[in-house]
Amino acid sequence: MTTRNLIILLLLALVSPVQADQYAFLVGVRDYSLHNELTALKYTEDDVHTLAGTLSKSGVPQENIVLMTQRMAAQKARLSPRSDQIRREFQLLLSELGPNDSIIVGFSGHGLQFKGDPVNYFCPLDAKPTDKSTLISLTEIYDSLNRCKARTKLLLVDACRDDPLTQVAKTTKRIELEPVLDRVPPVLAGGTVAIFSCSASQQSFESPDLQSGVFFHFVNRALAGEADDDGDQAVDLIELEYFTIKSVQKWARVNIGKPQIPERVGRATGAMELVRLDSGRQPAQMNPTKPQLEATAKSITNSIGMTLNLIPAGTFLMGSPPTEEGRDDDETQHRVTLSKDFYIGTTEVTQGQWESVMGTTPWRGQEYVKEGSNVAATFVSWEDAVEFCKKLSAREGKTYRLPTEAEWEYACRAGTTTTFSFGDVVVSLNEFAWWGGLVGDGNSTTEKYAHEVGLKRASAFGLYDMHGNAWEWCSDWQADYPVGSIVDPQGPSTGSYRAVRGGSWIYNASYCRSASRFHSAPDYREGFLGFRVVVGR
Length: 537
Description:
Elements: H1 3-15, E1 22-28, H2 44-57, E2 65-68, H3 70-73, H4 83-94, E3 102-112, E4 121-122, E5 136-137, H5 138-147, E6 152-162, E7 174-176, E8 192-196, E9 203-207, E10 212-213, H6 214-226, E11 234-236, H7 237-255, E12 263-265, E13 273-276, E14 299-301, E15 307-311, E16 314-318, E17 334-338, E18 342-345, H8 351-358, H9 382-396, E19 400-401, H10 405-413, H11 429-432, E20 471-477, E21 486-487, E22 498-501, E23 517-520, E24 529-530, E25 534-536
Parallel strand pairs: 1-2, 1-3, 3-6, 6-8, 17-21, 20-24
Antiparallel strand pairs: 3-4, 4-5, 7-9, 8-12, 9-10, 11-13, 14-15, 15-18, 16-17, 18-25, 19-25, 20-22, 22-23
Helix pairs in contact: 2-6, 6-7
């Protein structure tokens, strides 16, 4: 072979696309009668079998799908969902994955969390609540996924968590899951994204009417094509997340009268395509989107790298009940309906975003400030924030504005009625917020400034730092709430102070509550005042 031909072959190898394969690892446990310590579940096995069929129809090769259920064990003993076999088959599959591959991992069954132990455990067929060696640590699953070479990694978890010291209810057929307490780092290209069947302090249900767990019922419908909102014959992560969260939330409200809102943990940059509906093309790789306003109907990213998530219209209880610890008299509960969907920034406006639009650095040289392009922009007045929105609107050709108080609280709550978007337990606030730096005993006592955005856990709506970090300006003038129900409240037409919400790094936990209200003069600037923006759909 001549040197010229060798060079041509090498160049062809460099420019030729690398084959990208899809994989799935699915575990469902229905019958726990082996040790008679956990109740049986009706539909967990059917849920993962249906998911395997959906993925196969979308083009995932049958040999790339590992399905571990009692039904499969009858055909092949190694596919029994026992703890040692799950671990062995999982590691065996992960070792096969290359850097361009993708994998969907699904667990459906019971789960446990021990008192004083932040680790969540999935219960395999041979689970014994008193023996952790028989349980599958979800932290172990995360670590394995983070270490594997695959570029796209999605974990779906519908698992019950009951304190093993408390008798498992015999009369209910429900799955209960709170989000993991171990923080999953922000997910970039090649990272892991997890979607849990419900948010903190909620329950995840099975339904005889659906003949399925509610969560996996809508996951399967999403991946079968119902989530393809933009009609590109593919379902990506944003479409799956939006369809599943909205559908599960609505179904639970209408049919059970209780909240069940799936929660996403982790962060991905760009589109994460999961399945192709025509099965004729390989899935696109998870690459950063071009820095232009690119609507996917579920999320938009603009020219300065700002990402906003779509918040569905709905009705909620605004304010706090009289029994809520730390509440103030201006938080009277009332029913609010937001009639239109809207987009809201996933993070507070950063210093880098501010400087790219305004060309100024109002925080520079001020006390209690950390500088950095991803740090929340502070020392910004309400008037400054409005001017930022005007300039950004002119640049992007869309109307950016501050959220109303109602929009802010609705987005913050993400379907919850609890003190915080993650529940009522203050001790968990450190997982979601920077708080208590000067007044209180939070995690900012040694770091007295607003922090980089997106370092804490996101809410069920995929929003970061809604609790703490920087107090956020809203569009409303400060005023008492109206009496009775109201649709699309805008606040009074005049006033002396503008509303700010969310608490900050400086104050105690009660100011970080979802219902907490504060206000400030429109021209006031301080190191704990920032904002995020919204865009109408």
